Amino acid sequence: MTEKTPHPAAIDDAVFLGRAVERLSVLIAEQSKSVFDTMGIVIPVRSCSLMTVLATLGTASASDLARELGHSHQLVMQKIPKLLRLGLIQHRNDDNDARRRIFMPTDEGLSQLAKFGQCTVLIRAAYAGLFAEVGDVRQFVDRAADALHAKPLDKRIDSPG
Questions:
Q1: Which of 8, 25, 89, 98 has the fewest CB within 10 Å, making it most exposed?
Q2: Residue 123 burial by CB count (10 A; 0-12/13-18/19+): exposed, middle or buried?
Q3: Global pTM value
Q4: Where is the HTH marR-type domain (predicted)?
Q5: What domain range includes position 87?
Q6: How far is CA 80 from the centre of its chain?
């Protein structure tokens, strides 16, 4: 059980579900970073899905990546500079639209993705053990998101009056 420090406000209530999910996300990212460091993976933990999608597509604009990832264009654009600095991706101007940049993985980016691919086997096994212990968190999160898409939170609230 995770040790909790008492909070002056009741922020461990179900009302703060997003906070709890974010705490889990941060913990997973921190612990994944440790695994990545051990395995020589320099891809930022929160950019692995972007790198995977980009490698699958071969080349893509930020809009293409955002659409494939189900993220905002802004979030994708926040990740791009670090991936460029690390030499994991490169870009060129779009021949048809000078304002648009086309991104592609570098050889180093593909090499890093191969290391990440080896790491996913280990992470998947670790999650299998975790899920045996606590239940399949991934399925639970997906079901909760699907249910909220089908019936948003505002429709679940009985408005006073």
A1: 8
A2: middle
A3: 0.83
A4: 51-100
A5: 43-150
A6: 14
